[in-house]
Task: structure prediction
Amino acid sequence: MAHLDRAHRAPDPSSTRARQDDDAAPEPIDGTNPDDSVPQVPEPQRKSRAGRNLPAAIGVGAGLGGLVVVSLFVWKWLFLGLVIAAVMVGVWEMVRAVSVRKAQPPLVPLLIGAPLMVSLAWFGGAERLPLGLLATLLLLFVWRFADGVANYSRDVTAGALIAVYVPFLGSFAALLAYPAQDGSVRVLVTILAVVLSDTGGYATGVFLGKHPMAPSVSPAKSWEGFAGSVFWTGAGSALALPLLLDDAVWWHGAIFGVAVSIASVLGDLGESLIKRDLGVKDMSNLLPGHGGLMDRLDSVLLALPTAYAVLAFLVPWSPS
Result:
């Protein structure tokens, strides 16, 4: 905190006189600055203790969250478009990231398969989604033939991982939203649970975190932060589900919140593990304060199928 140190330091008389002399003296005719010889140290960018540019992160997160909520309750077809766009951007970021380790999964079949999986989940339900994944994998295997035998196994394995990790898991957002009559609410409570997990774990970890959870994967995560994630998500969901979903009671919400929180933390750690293995800090720089879109979807992707399964068991829906 160099600026605070300067603010509490007594002024140096010699420096005061020098500044007065500089104010009185005319500028040199050659246009040089007398202070050019003094190195100027830029002020460091303000970041939170967790390493984020917190104002930017909050602004971007609020904007994205608001867009999702509007799409869910104002024009549901926009939500379908947002899910498709999100998984396609996520696929692009993942292909770009794995190329650091010289794997070259073909991008085109993945960009074709991503909207296919989401659309099959939206229009056909859970029984159609595996068909989209199968078609994507087959297209991926055949497409890669054109580049020859060299590194074929490496490239298709990376591509298969991306196909499952991003569009397949992301398609559960479509399964949650449609065709259930209360699908928008189911997506909303899932997003709320992920936000509670992220925010509760962040705040608890900042103030109470002492014991690292996985220092080799994510040094900022602590067991205290994980406990805060589970507690706040369970408590918040125990209040939210009975208010927002018919036939839900408080213990449904508590179980739902705990399950989603655990999945959210594991998803975050999973993406951190991938980034550590690839040697990249962020998947991209698309979102100020967050990094790439995948750096925001990491917690959501594993939470979506978890939420779908828990709600299907505890609070079954009635198709419209």
In short: Confidence is low (pLDDT under 50) at residues 1-50. The longest helix spans residues 250-278.
